[in-house]
């Protein structure tokens, strides 16, 4: 389907034929993200946890886009792994609330890890030194902003459960970084 769309764009002179592979990849990524996000939102609606899912996904996706981390070998494995983690978080998220010390300890550890590492340079990305520095800088700024939001909401007495799901967005980014490093999914320059 993706190839047919790109071929149609080429035949209508919308894109340059030399860019065919880049457009196929970009469209494929958009479809995969749409599929994953739609599935997650439908699951959260079924579980009655849409607000929590939105907080989690917002914090996770903003940060993950710059920190990088573990990548599955293909979309199907990524989709299954993502759904399992998401469903477990949605089902057991409220139970985590009773372990606030653990939650904030994990958040603090994640904060330190992301501030130190910043970005994992995955082979698919293969950032140049300048791109890697910029990605690390942006990841750290986003982390500081998200942490400021969490601390501010906590100080204002916002819902602990909403804050907990925000924290898990950051924590899962850190876990993804650790897994990527352990599995050697990093270009070391």
Q: Which terms would index this structure?
A:
single chain, 189 residues, mainly alpha
Description:
With 189 residues, this protein is mainly alpha-helical. Helix content is 77%, strand content 0%. It has helices at residues 2-11, 20-46, 50-67, 75-96, 100-117, 129-155, 160-182. Helix 5 packs across helix 7.
What's the short story on this structure?
With 189 residues, the chain is mainly α. 77% of the residues lie in helices and 0% in strands. The model has no long low-confidence stretch (mean pLDDT 91).
How do the helices and strands line up, and which of them pair or pack?
Elements: H1 2-11, H2 20-46, H3 50-67, H4 75-96, H5 100-117, H6 129-155, H7 160-182
Helix pairs in contact: 1-2, 2-3, 2-4, 3-6, 3-7, 5-6, 5-7, 6-7
Shape: globular
Fraction of residues in β-strands: under 5%
Instruction: Compute the CA-based radius of gyration.
Output: 18 Å
* N→C terminal distance: 37 Å
């Amino acid at each position: 389907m993706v190839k047919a769309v790109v071929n149609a764009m080429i035949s209508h002179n919308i894109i340059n034929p030399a860019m065919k592979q880049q457009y196929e990849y970009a469209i494929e990524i958009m479809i995969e993200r749409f599929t994953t996000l739609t599935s997650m939102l439908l699951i959260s609606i079924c579980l009655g946890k849409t607000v929590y899912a939105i907080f989690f996904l917002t914090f996770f996706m903003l940060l993950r886009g710059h920190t990088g981390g573990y990548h599955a070998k293909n979309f199907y494995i990524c989709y299954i792994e993502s759904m399992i983690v998401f469903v477990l978080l949605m089902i057991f998220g409220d139970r985590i609330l009773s372990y606030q010390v653990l939650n904030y300890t994990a958040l603090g550890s994640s904060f330190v890890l992301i501030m130190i590492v910043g970005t994992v340079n995955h082979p698919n990305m293969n950032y140049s030194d300048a791109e890697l520095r910029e990605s690390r800088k942006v990841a750290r700024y986003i982390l500081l902003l998200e942490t400021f939001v969490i601390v501010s909401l906590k100080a204002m007495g916002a819902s602990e459960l909403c804050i907990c799901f925000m924290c898990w967005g950051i924590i899962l980014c850190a876990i993804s970084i650790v897994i990527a490093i352990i599995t050697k999914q990093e270009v070391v320059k």
